[in-house]
Design goal:
alpha/beta, seven-stranded mixed β-sheet, elongated, 198 residues
Length: 198
C-alpha cells in the first residue's frame, strides 16, 4: 500500500513510540524516493517526523486552554496558501509555543500567535531526497479545527504541493566523466605551450 501512496497524512497523539521502527524506515525511504508527507499537529512528536528533522521535535511549549489562535501567512507566494486570506482565525485551540526543536525550515509558510502571547512556527516545509514534507500545527483533538474550511484548504493545497513529480533520472556512485577528461587536459596543455611560444 505504501508503494502506491503519493502523499501520506500523519496525525498521532499519544502512541508515537508504538509505531514499529521498520514502518518508520519504510515511510522514510518512500519520502526519499518522492512520496510527500503531511504531518499534522501532535504528529510533531512522531518517530517519522523526528527522523525527517534529525532532532527531538517533541520539544516545545504547550497549554490546553482553548485559546484563540491567529495563523499568519508568512509567504503569500507559496502554493500552500493559494486561495487564503493573510490570516486564519481559530477560536479555540491548544497552544504550542517556541522554542520548537526543529531544524530551520526550507520554507516557512505560517506562524501562529496565541492569546497567551506565545508564537510558533506552524507551517514548515522541508525537502528530503525527492520528497517534500509539510508540518502543519493546528488540529487538537478536542476542538473542531478540521471542520474549518480554511484549514481544509491548507491541507488540500499541501497535498497538491507535496505530490510527487516526474524527476529527471539521477545517478549516484562513480560514473564516467560527462566530458572526456584526457582531451580536456591535452587541450589545456597545448594552450599553455602556445601561450609561452607567443
Amino acid at each position: 500500500m505504501l508503494d502506491n501512496t503519493d502523499v501520506l497524512i500523519w496525525w498521532g497523539h499519544m502512541a508515537h513510540d508504538q509505531v514499529q521502527d521498520e514502518i518508520v524506515d519504510r515511510v522514510h525511504q518512500r519520502i526519499q524516493d518522492g512520496m510527500g508527507l503531511i504531518v499534522l499537529h501532535s504528529g510533531h512528536a512522531s518517530k517519522i517526523f523526528r527522523k525527517v528533522c534529525g532532532t527531538n521535535s517533541g520539544y516545545l511549549k504547550w497549554r490546553e486552554d482553548g485559546e484563540k489562535e491567529i495563523l499568519w501567512v508568512i509567504d503569500p507566494s507559496h502554493p500552500i496558501v493559494e486561495g487564503l486570506d493573510e490570516k486564519i482565525s481559530i477560536p479555540h485551540e491548544e497552544m504550542y509555543g517556541e522554542r520548537f526543536n526543529i531544524p530551520q525550515p526550507d520554507e516557512l509558510v505560517f506562524i501562529s500567535w496565541f492569546e497567551g502571547g506565545e508564537v510558533f512556527r506552524s507551517g514548515c516545509c522541508y525537502h528530503r531526497g525527492k520528497g517534500k514534507v509539510f508540518y502543519f500545527r493546528p488540529g487538537h483533538e478536542v476542538f473542531p479545527i478540521y471542520h474549518q474550511p480554511e484549514i481544509q484548504k491548507v491541507i488540500t493545497n499541501a497535498v497538491k504541493w507535496a505530490a510527487p513529480i516526474n524527476f529527471p533520472n539521477v545517478t549516484y556512485g562513480n560514473p564516467p566523466p560527462v566530458v572526456e577528461i584526457k582531451a580536456q587536459l591535452e587541450h589545456s596543455i597545448q594552450g599553455l605551450h602556445e601561450k609561452k611560444e607567443g
